[in-house]
Specification:
Helices cover 59% and strands 1% of the residues. The protein is an all-alpha fold. The protein folds into two domains: 1-42 and 128-301, Hypothetical protein af1432 (Orthogonal Bundle); 44-124, no CATH class. The protein has a two-stranded antiparallel ribbon with strand order 1-2. Helix 6 packs parallel to helix 8. The longest helix is centred in the middle third of the chain and has 22 residues, at 130-151. It is globular, with a radius of gyration of 19 Å. Bound molecules: fe (ii) ion (FE2) (2 copies). The site of one fe (ii) ion has 6 residues, from helix 10.
Amino acid sequence: MHLGKLNPKYGKGSVTLEEEFIDDTEVRLRLEATFRSPDYKPPTLPSVALELLSLSQNPNADFKKVGKVLESDPIITGQVLRIAQSPVYAGRVAITTIPQALSRLGIKTLRDIVLQVALNARVFRAKPYQPTMESLQRHSMAVAHLARIISRYTPFEGEYAFLCGLLHDVGVAGSLIALFESNPKKPPALEDAWSAVKSVHAEASKLMVEQWKLPADIALTVGAHHSVLIQGYPHTMAAIVHLADELAKELGFTTRAEGAFATRNIETMDRGTLLQVLSLSAKQMELISKDALKHLEGLGG
Ligand SMILES: [Fe+2]
Ligand SMILES: [Fe+2]
């Protein structure tokens, strides 16, 4: 999925200048030590989500088997059916059973909904930071849907883009959980920790995806979702997720702490370079923005 080296006239992407002194060293070191430790374990995903992720990689997956996997977890199944009925997925006929959901939505969309439910229940959770976790959950959903929309203008599969979008910022959740667990009685204030969380989150997302044993390319994509570059080469799916991330923020799907607290600047790719990497014209970008606005109304902005 790598393209050639970027046209030098576009440069390496922009890095904005640090505007104020930020001392996030202590929290950053603590987070880095947590994620580098051989004992680090991300929050566990329910087995139904992991099984479905592995089944969905088989193009001839047996629907009966998938149904059985889902039936093994009625709590998740109930929530999956509720989401399947939301305007974003449902057609005119209501979806009330898993076989119906499977035949109407397909295994990959169902897998995406299951993962969304699993992340909301197990990963986007850390009591002292809950408002930020909830906004992160909405942001991740928006990025997932937008990545799917953008991928329609590229040769890449929409469901795959959705999955990468859903997972791109799990490292933010993983960092907040690690901070809470390191000192449950007195976790650091978000204001003091946010810059460090932002600095490490892409690497943390990569590590978590690796530990969940999801496909290696998803790990690479989430790890590079801000810089878009891997060893100097632009990574197309990372570019899709990065563009989706920016659009989500422009449309109001922002993580609560974003913009509220000062952060160290992280390497990021500018819009012109992104469009070049994805071979998107200004006209196509306009169509994507229109689609995005229409689609996200169903998610509630
Ligand atoms: Fe991010
Ligand atoms: Fe993001």
